[in-house]
Amino acid sequence: MSPPLLFDRALHRSRLNRAARDYDTAVFLKQRAALDAVDRLESVTRTFARAVELGARTGAFAAALAESPAAAKLHFLAEADLSLPMLAGRSAPRLVLDEERLPFAPASLDLVVSLLALHWTNDLPGALIQIRRALKPDGLFLGAIFGGASLTELRQSLLAAEAELRGGAGPRVSPFADGADAAGLLQRAGFALPVTDVDRVTVRYEHPLRLLQDLRRMGETNVLLDRDRRPLTRPVLARAFQLYQERFGLPDGRVPASFEIVAVTGWAPPSPEVGTDRRRSRQGGAGPVDLSPRQLVAPTFPTLHASRPVPPPEGEGG
Amino acid sequence: MTDAPARPHHQPQVDPRLLEVLVCPVTHGPLEYDREAGELISRSARLAYPIRDGVPVMLPEEARELTD
């Protein structure tokens, strides 16, 4: 009955462990999502006795919260991550957990925050259901996930380069959801009043290599279980960089990298059981829409087997 | 930080507000806090989850299997 596994969680964990040291140099997306989550919290008129952040990494959310009057609304915040090294510098109550197997008692938390960390779960609907169950009635979930248009330039360049040089392309990407799907996912997980909002960010890099470097520092490298066993070779990567620059290059020589941050907000229903049909029917087609991860596939993150960095084609010397 | 009595290994204590809500991620059964050993014990899963520097590591793959 369980869906096939897409991601190797142990590999993801080791990628995060490896990324922990330099994570703060590539933390801008996390910070952006954190500021947005704090904004959402500011507009909520209640307090939260017990909050947990899943995938807290190095504490960007807590840092953003500390700058906001919303900080007074949280009486207790524990920071959780799959990677212990990510939490190493934190002084808040911490724990290591896997979002696929949450260790929280039912109806025990008032607020769960998860920013840009759920896209490597094999069963996203299942993870959302676990979050909803851990929340008390009327508990709040503040989330952010990467949208499907994220890294479209890199994705297209890699696919084209692989097709050109190998006559086929492997999955170098992590599947992901779009804004509309995200609201449906929340609803199916039993959240009431789901709200989603898409924030589109374009980052300019002097070279595609810098983008890959950032992704590695975020720990966002490909952990698809069925990923192409053949590592990305230098020629493929060099050609992908070329195509990236040709197709997407800006007049100033830089290249853009698109990211979509889908903010999701949902409330645990007042009773422990799933919300009312009234809320569902407002969405219109509340029928058996299948929103399994397979259907949401819109590939996102590239693989980075590049433990050995590939120099830019010009080969600027040291 | 309060003064802890001299013990062979005294590590930072886990925040009680966190402990109160933790259950075994495998069975969702209750956990026993073994301060001396620095472990959270799940009898139902026969696993002892380690606490490292005051941080509970709630991963079955990191847990010690109970033999008794």
Key terms:
heterodimer, A: 318 residues, alpha/beta, Rossmann fold, 7-stranded mixed beta sheet, 9 helices, 31% helix, 18% strand, disordered C terminus, B: 68 residues, mainly beta, N-terminal domain of TfIIb, 5-stranded antiparallel beta sheet, 1 helix, disordered N terminus
Q: Report helical residue fraction of chain A.
A: 25-40%
Please give the share of residues in helix of chain B.
under 10%
**What is the top-level CATH class of the domain at 29-68 in chain B?**
Mainly Beta
Uncertain ranges of chain A: 274-318
End-to-end Cα distance of chain A: 54 Å
Task: Give a nutshell description of this structure.
Chain A is of the alpha/beta class and 318 residues long.
Description of the molecule:
The complex is a heterodimer of chains A (318) and B (68). Chain A is an alpha/beta fold. Chain A has a domain at 9-149 and 176-201 and 260-296: 3-Layer(aba) Sandwich (Rossmann fold), CATH 3.40.50. Chain A is built from nine helices and seven strands; from the N terminus they run ααβαβββαβααβααβα. Chain A has a seven-stranded mixed beta sheet with strand order 3-2-1-4-5-7-6, with helices on both faces. In chain A, strand 4, helix 4 (124-134) and strand 5 (135-146) form a beta-alpha-beta unit. The termini of chain A are far apart. Chain B has one helix spanning 16-19; strands at residues 32-34, 39-42, 47-52, 55-56, 64-65. Chain B has a domain at 29-68: Single Sheet (N-terminal domain of TfIIb). Helices cover 6% and strands 25% of the residues of chain B. Chain B is globular, with a radius of gyration of 12 Å. Mean pLDDT of chain B is 88; it is low at 1-8. Chain B has 68 residues and is mainly β. The chains are: A alpha/beta (318), B mainly beta (68). At the A-B interface, strand 3 of A face strand 4 of B.
